[in-house]
Design brief:
Elements lengths: L19 H22 L24 H15 L5 H31 L1
Keywords: Membrane, Transmembrane, Transmembrane helix
Length: 117
């Protein structure tokens, strides 16, 4: 037989297997049809002009991320409070870490009790 019929010599479902290249071609055609359809129902807006890339110089301002801005604003707020002190910060840190260690201890105790059974 000239074709590979997936191990079947007869029957209605005896179809030749598609090669890898045929599968890729079919996917490419289907993808192109999809884009043609999408362009027909919702045409793309005019392409935006891409920003021009250039090397930064001394006159350019650095880009500030939102996280960095929030961090600096929080620092400014805490620095403005006269009642805020290093001792208070350390106390809050100790309480936070004690809570974390207690939670880890409870989780470890629960895991050990599961192994004991």
């Amino acid at each position: 037989m000239p074709h590979n019929y997936a191990g079947k010599k007869h029957g209605l479902l005896a179809l030749p297997r598609a090669t890898f290249l045929q599968q890729q071609t079919w996917r490419s055609v289907m993808l192109q049809r999809k884009f043609d359809y999408l362009d027909a129902i919702a045409p793309a807006t005019a392409a935006r002009k891409r920003p021009e890339l250039r090397v930064a110089n001394d006159h350019d301002a650095p880009v500030t991320s939102a996280a960095r801005t929030l961090q600096s604003e929080l620092g400014r707020v805490f620095a403005q409070e006269s009642s805020w002190s290093v001792r208070r910060t350390v106390a809050i840190g100790v309480v936070f870490h004690l809570g974390i260690f207690c939670a880890l201890g409870l989780a470890a105790g629960g895991a050990l009790s599961q192994f004991a059974h």
